[in-house]
User: Fold these one by one.
Assistant:
Number 1:
Amino acid sequence: MSENATWLARYGAAYMPNFGAPARVLVRGKGCRVWDADGREYLDLLAGIAVNSLGQAHPDVVAAVTDQISTLGHISNLFTSLWQVRLAERLGAIATTNDPRLPARVFLCNSGSEANETAFKLSRRTGRTKIVAMEGSFHGRTIGAVSLTSNPKYREPFEPLPPGAVFVPYGDEAALEAAVDESTAAVILETIQGESGIVPAPDGFVAAARRITRDAGALLWIDEVQTGIGRTGDWLSYLPTGVTPDVVTMAKGLAAGVPIGACVATGPAGELLGPGLHGTTFGGNPLASRVGLTVLSVIERDGLLDHVRRVGDHFADAVTGLGHPGIVGVTGRGLLRGVVLSAPVGARVTARALEAGFLINAPRPDRLRIAPPLVITEAELETFVSALPTLLEE
Ligand SMILES: Cc1ncc(COP(=O)(O)O)c(C=O)c1O
């Protein structure tokens, strides 16, 4: 029996069956490469689902973790650290780039779901309960986040869910306008729906959502868990639209693999969660906060936003340039890309890619997701593009 098979059998007996069978047992990584328990090497085009923004074992992350855990790892929220304060200031400034005079307040937690749960609780403090969410949305697996996620597969096994969610077709401005009224606490949306298959909102939709929520006195809540922290070539994917949301949630790529989440509220929304109304034991501890700051510094120092735009566009052009009949097009921005297939063969292509040494996934049957570390090179991406025709063979 191979090492992979041995460990997968033990996993099957020891771990809850909620994920299904993992594809491989990974033991080591460096940059955009990982190795499995049998020594096979893979090019990581998934980054732990848009998390490992700087790849594996990035020297700045290793240094930050090592130094911080050797100095001050965890302290609880009865105390604070300079790292927590600095990261909150930095994230607030990023979220209000389009309106720098607006104050921002930050809550640090441990995951995207928890960041959304925080925003959910915050929205209830408006005194309103309706939340307008989008068809095709994914906001996480806690009960609150599931209630805002449209896919019945995630919702139905856990009903009854918290009441209040209403779903409208993604990108449909008229439907959004009709759904939002004076009882609406918030509108939640992703600028690019990740788990639905890298589906971008149409141009103008985010600005329309800003106008509609402002007119109704509702919060605009943008979920940047998958799209944020440089993934699309901007610090946050909504920034090019010129809007400033009331609430922004982030997680995934923020601390390069160290668990973290952040809920940023701008303007009056920042005052809604008063003393005692919310909390976390681990969230915002010195270790995670320091690594979050390190990631932001490295993205800035190494010009990674420009890099992401450049290599992301190059990848999309190269895939389109294949002119392959099995490929309809490429969606997304920066390094969050969907390869649209002409047939529902995503699972087969993903399995073949794994055999050929590429980690990708298929968030829906006709779509491959490419979300590699932000540090990936054009040459690394090209090895996958060259392999695509073979992976797509009947
Ligand atoms: C847009 C979005 N929101 C929230 C989540 C949930 O994040 P987490 O798995 O860290 O709880 C995800 C995870 O894929 C996501 O893509």
Number 2:
Amino acid sequence: MSAMFVNIAGLVLIGLIVWWFWRSKPKARHAAGGVIDVLVEGGVYTPARIEVAAGQPVTLRFLRKDPSPCAEKVLFDDLGVSADLPIGQPVVLTLTPNEAGEHAFTCQMQMYRGTLVVK
Ligand SMILES: [Cu+2]
């Protein structure tokens, strides 16, 4: 009876550990149908490197906190996509990158720089 209890306790413990690691995974650099939030602040996009799967639509939500005009646009040159980013208002961009490789995204002066990695 007590051996059975130990087994169950062990299983519960393993379950908790697995759950903990699953829960504490870093968020959404890899897109799987979700929305990826990109913060525009302090001269950097956060995250600056976003991995997505080729041929799958990906939704990026840019939130610009930087008031400088430098940050007012985001351009995906390779993909022919751009957007204006008003301060403090999330802007949603949905794209479907078909070609694998690295696609830069930048502000209009290319001071802000990020990479969309398509696999
Ligand atoms: Cu700029």
Number 3:
Amino acid sequence: MKRGCDVEVYEQARQLKEVGAGVQLSANGTRVLYALGVGEELKALSCEAEGKEIRLWNTGEAWKLFDLGRVYDFPYFTVYRPDLLEVLARAVRRIKPEAIHLGERCTGFVQTDGAVRLELENGSMSGDVLVGADGVHSLIRQTLFGPDKPQFSGIIAWRGIIPMERLPARMARMVGVNWVGPGGHVVHYPLRAGTLMNFVGALERTDWQVESWSARGTTEELAADYRGWHEDVQTLIRNIPVPHKWALMVRPPMPRWTVGRVTLLGDACHSMVPFLAQGAVMAIEDALVLARALTELDGDVGSRLARYEEARRERTRRAVEGSADNIARFHSRALADPGTAREYVEREWAGHNVASRYEWLFRYDALTETL
Ligand SMILES: Cc1cc2nc3c(=O)[nH]c(=O)nc-3n(C[C@H](O)[C@H](O)[C@H](O)COP(=O)(O)OP(=O)(O)OC[C@H]3O[C@@H](n4cnc5c(N)ncnc54)[C@H](O)[C@@H]3O)c2cc1C
């Protein structure tokens, strides 16, 4: 919209609200948010962790991580999702107050030479381009390429939000922590100026396979999953008011996701397990590169969309694969025994190894990427 495109957003939810969970936004994402003019607004609601740590699941031994958050030109924010959504929606409405249509479920579309018509439950509308930003179960993707065939990763993710005042002072720190253990890991980091702690636990388990943001679990079930883990992990679990669970599915990288005037972005075309913390950041990068392709390139709409897809294909494929590679790394059996675990952690999280896994992600500039 800032580049002169007239955009309408159709969202099935009746209210604009995100799940109460956190999201990490690395420099490659905050660079885009600053370019869109919402960086400072978001910063006021976010946390910038002072550091990151790896901790061992049973002994609690901690290693300070080479700090990725501070070495780039843009900050590493940890954000409460409803705050991010609110800041983005406000920015859209400042430009076009009626752009976001709620309670509008898309049911299909029809493409002709000159336009694309979006079918909604309560009507239809036409435009030059249709962008399916409709998430992991994308109807637009399935209409373009047929039914979805996700594979269960064998991992379920637990998440919860803990009021910081419930935690003992030694745990209520402005530090992002990644606990690693055989068959599971836990990540926690502060949100909302340090008033909340976000909890994400990933565990290898095959008995539950629902991919949903809203499925609830119980404290007892979560605690049973992490039996034998360090007392600090138990303290986190005990203080989560409502734990939620999500079965992690994997979909292989798509070779293409544009047909004529219709394209996809975000999880609709490259969902990934959340172990590089890049799914939302990739969607943010996609959006900027797509806007640039539509407004900076010549040629018909189809060729501009194809250039957007080309510019994003290899990078998002690496992110999908890099995220999956972290399953084996975070859950290695070498972590079972404190003797082998120390050597393993010191090797896998050595500065140069961490840099080779993250530098290419964080240094990317969606504003100057060649189209
Ligand atoms: C446990 C966990 C932790 C994560 N942590 C991070 C992290 O730290 N950093 C990070 O970058 N990423 C993280 N991610 C990934 C991130 O949440 C996703 O990649 C991101 O939400 C994708 O955004 P999206 O806009 O593509 O899709 P979504 O957020 O799923 O949004 C899709 C929207 O489309 C709407 N919709 C769907 N179908 C229709 C329809 N037919 N008609 C109208 N509207 C429709 C939905 O209601 C929804 O609002 C995490 C994911 C999980 C599961």
Number 4:
Amino acid sequence: MQLYNNLSAKERAELIEQAGKERLTISFYKYAKIGNTEIFRNHLFLAWDALDVLGRIYVANEGINAQLSVPAENFEPFKNHLDTISFLENVRLNIAVEHDNFAFLKLKVKVRNKIVADGLNDASFDVTNKGIHVNAEKFNELIEDPNTVLVDMRNHYESEIGHFKNAVTPDVDTFRESLDLIEEDLREHKDDKKLVMYCTGGIRCEKASAYYKHKGFKNVFQLEGGIINYVRQIEAEGLENKFLGKNFVFDQRRSERISDDVIANCHQCGEPADLHTNCANEACHLLFIQCDSCKEKMENCCSTNCMEISKLPYEEQKALRKGQGNSNDIFKKGRADHLPYKKDLRNIFETMKPNNI
Ligand SMILES: [Zn+2]
Ligand SMILES: [Zn+2]
């Protein structure tokens, strides 16, 4: 039994290119009790590998969280397979607006402690006591209500390139930080305001809404299926789109455009731009926003220092990295002192306050 990938990303990309067939980018999640995660993991890998499914899937005792690329022609068999798993029967599939055949190049099914690294101690509150799930139509209504505080549950580099009009966008690196910050700022309004939240596909709000209810918020709402599902609904039902800019996604596409507004700036020159890139210096790999002309001038790097390093022979680069620790430790998303135009979203939070709270 082959339970792991035997193709490199490059080989896979070539195969996809040759096949020339359309692939769909899909995500879904489900909280459900899974006993033997290892057996479940292997079952998924075998079934999906046979259908040429690629992606990143997390399996834990609390459920499953999956981001996938599925050949369009295998969508039906894939869906049928999901329906054979009792807790995944008719699970809501978030289908991306913009597809990219190269969104994922490997099938990785990983067993984890949790399906979202949320930093929460689930035993300390009732995770099943969630907020009220609302569809796009109801969400549009709610966010026009002066009694509503709309909160973006994502991190700074996600909301920087796109968010709902009038949303509070905490300047945080992690979900955990965001929870505390919001609670602190809204402490006075646990009874009188409607706390409406959203995230990419809905999964982060599942825990966040339960957490806020546990903390005493009386009126908690969450956008069902997140931004991805919202966009599908407004298109299908002809509703007004209240999302500005791009939706950050966690695959090769990095983001999908929802409205024509460019709400971010190049972190190097300040010109309007909303395309994320990773610094070409392997030892840096900083995620930041770079416009086309800076990309050319800086050769995909975040600094002149990184430019110089990225030009060194590979062995020399490796030698330089030695002793600097794991590159993951220095990997910081979209923050560096030498990027003058990185927006400080804390200011947005402050300036929003008088209107919203
Ligand atoms: Zn620029
Ligand atoms: Zn760099």
